[in-house]
Design brief:
A hairpin with a 4-residue loop joins strand 3 and strand 4. The chain has 241 residues and is α+β, with helices and mostly antiparallel strands. The model has no long low-confidence stretch (mean pLDDT 92). It starts with a strand and ends with a strand. It is globular, with a radius of gyration of 18 Å. It is built from four helices and eleven strands.
Length: 241
């Protein structure tokens, strides 16, 4: 099985005030390719929906050497590296117009039963992965486990209509945008490269009030979203260059 190939242009909706791609814009394109590839290969959300299942991102890491400029083009390669009872691993490599590998990502996905909102044993749909595994190593270290963040919340957000996706929980890019909102704008303006590690713990649903806790260090920023019951929903680290 070969890696799947997608061509992208950094369109205006993916850039920020620096006229370079935003972190959420880059992640949006990466996750769009994941969905498109699953659809093409016959195990997209349309097929899983017949069983009332869906793909849910569990963990993800993204390494970006530099943020590409508006209207620049790149090629994305994606492939499934393997799976176990709990998760399927999908890898990504991004190559710019000059042939340079400038970004890498590793994502881990689980199947969610929409009736119970609980994960599904991957072995119940083993045929989903038949003939899809590519014998190639992941392009970077796997997503790290992110610990809890102490202290008072720095941002409060109520999950609204524009935040939720077809899984009826808050979209990944909204988490990333809120984390970016909590960072100094001067840091984002001068951003050269980064590594993002993202851990999803529990769903954020419509109407939930989220408290975002932030911890700054020399390496970057650690984030934790909690709901009204003080339950962890999402944890992340952004290491900046």
């Amino acid at each position: 099985m070969d890696k799947s190939v997608f061509k992208f242009t950094i369109a205006p909706q993916y850039v920020d005030f620096t006229s370079r791609a935003s972190l959420s814009g880059m992640c949006d394109m990466i996750l769009h390719a994941a969905g498109q590839d699953a659809y093409r290969r016959g195990f997209g959300i349309d097929v899983l929906a017949e069983k009332n299942f869906g793909w849910v991102l569990s963990r993800m890491c993204v390494e970006i050497d530099y943020m590409p400029k508006e209207y620049s083009e790149f090629t994305l390669y994606t492939w499934i590296g393997g799976y176990n009872r709990l998760a399927s691993t999908r890898n990504f490599e991004l190559v710019d117009g000059e042939g340079r590998l400038f970004a890498r990502a590793v994502s881990q996905w689980c199947m969610l039963d929409f009736a119970t909102r609980m994960p599904v044993d991957m072995n119940t749909l083993a045929k989903v992965h038949e003939g899809t595994i590519v014998d190639a190593p992941s392009p970077c270290a796997a997503p790290k486990r992110v610990g809890a963040v102490a202290g008072e919340p720095q941002l409060v957000h109520k999950v609204a209509y524009s935040d939720i996706d077809f899984n009826r929980h808050m979209n990944t890019m909204r988490y990333i945008d809120l984390m970016s909102d909590a960072m100094p704008i001067e840091k984002l303006e001068k951003l050269e490269g980064l590594r993002l590690d993202l851990n999803f713990v529990k769903e954020a649903r419509y109407g939930d009030v989220l408290n975002l806790h932030v911890e700054e260090s020399e390496a970057g920023y650690t984030f934790e979203f909690k709901n009204q019951a003080a339950e962890a929903l999402c944890r992340a680290v952004i290491e900046v260059k």
